[in-house]
Design brief:
The chain is mainly α. It is built from five helices and no strands. The protein has one domain: Orthogonal Bundle (Non-ribosomal Peptide Synthetase Peptidyl Carrier Protein, Chain A). It starts with a helix and ends with a helix.
């Protein structure tokens, strides 16, 4: 069963904020269209950790070719990618 977009966005925001808290930053002002690596909220290791959290939370089995800015760069792109993956897994 697929999650609706609002539920996905809520969960993504929660994951990002928890990770940002661990890094001593604040992700509350991030919009759906902000390119996460460009915001400075997470360093490169943090971005990788965020991708791993998403992969685990949604059981995506990400592969190298999936890890692009188009798929995982913004909250909006991530939500669309997750919804697409869930639709193909149904």
């Amino acid at each position: 069963m697929t999650d609706d977009r609002n539920a996905i966005m809520t969960r993504l925001r929660r994951l990002l904020q928890q990770l940002a808290d661990d890094f001593g930053t604040d992700a509350s002002s991030i919009t759906e269209q902000d390119v996460i690596p460009d915001t400075g909220i997470l360093d490169s290791a943090g971005v990788i950790e965020f991708v791993m959290l998403i992969d685990n939370a949604y059981d995506l089995a990400l592969e190298a070719q999936d890890m692009t800015i188009d798929n995982l760069g913004t909250l909006s792109a991530i939500a669309a990618f997750i919804a697409s993956r869930q639709a193909t897994q149904s």
